Amino acid sequence: MKNTLTRGVLLATASTLAVTLSACGSEDTSSASEDTAADSSSSLPESSSSESSSPMESSSPAAGAAMDEPFGDGCTAVPADGEGSFAGMTDDPVATAASNNPVLSTLVTAVTQANLVDTLNTTQDITVIAPANPGFEAIPADALQAVLADNAQLTAILTHHVIPGRLSPDQLAGTHTTVNGDQVTIEGSGEMFTVAQTVTGTPANVICGNVQTANATVYIVDQVLAPTPA
């Protein structure tokens, strides 16, 4: 009887300990699960925020840079470095910038002959349609020499190539009033632009556009434009 009572007490005590240990283990497990969930949830927003903002930050500068670059097959003839390069031209006013560019040497001779260097260099925010050397070479030599010798006619031709205001490529197409007081009509879009009225009668093509100087945006063409008859 005494042994039976002792065994009963021991069994009851063991049962109580088992229940107590089980309850403690359950609380520890629940607490650990809650801590893990809290750690996990606090770290997720940081990771998500980083992933969502990164693509936008990396794409914006590239898009902006592409819009400002010169375009056209004729741009390959512009020096890659030095004062006559695209980078070198941005620091100089337009007549000075053109004088450093061998592609525009004949135009610079004509501008100098007409005493327009200072005018072009000091006029702010203009667009210059700049004939490359082949455009002048397409004019018969005797006719070109006659124009160079006639200052009034030369000035009218050259100022017909200058438009007040800096025209971006998406503003270039249309009819614009020139510094000569007449109008020039430019057709096209994107990177393809033409001007129908030229000295030779052959439409001029923009072969290198959106070239920046300190005071002008320049579009190099392959023909010399003709002023509108009075």
UniProtKB/TrEMBL annotation:
Example GO BP: extracellular matrix organization
Residue ranges of every copy of the FAS1 domain listed in the record: 91-225
Biased composition regions of type Low complexity, renumbered to the chain: 25-61
Assigned keywords, A-Z: Signal
InterPro entries per the UniProt record, alphabetical: Adhesion/Biosynth-related (IPR050904), FAS1_dom_sf (IPR036378), FAS1_domain (IPR000782)
Superkingdom of the organism of origin: Bacteria
GO MF terms held by the record: cell adhesion molecule binding
Signal peptide coordinates: 1-25
SUPFAM superfamilies, per database record: FAS1 domain
Gene Ontology CC entries for this record: extracellular matrix; extracellular space
Protein name from the UniProt record: Uncaracterized surface protein containing fasciclin (FAS1) repeats
Region Disordered, annotated ranges: 25-93
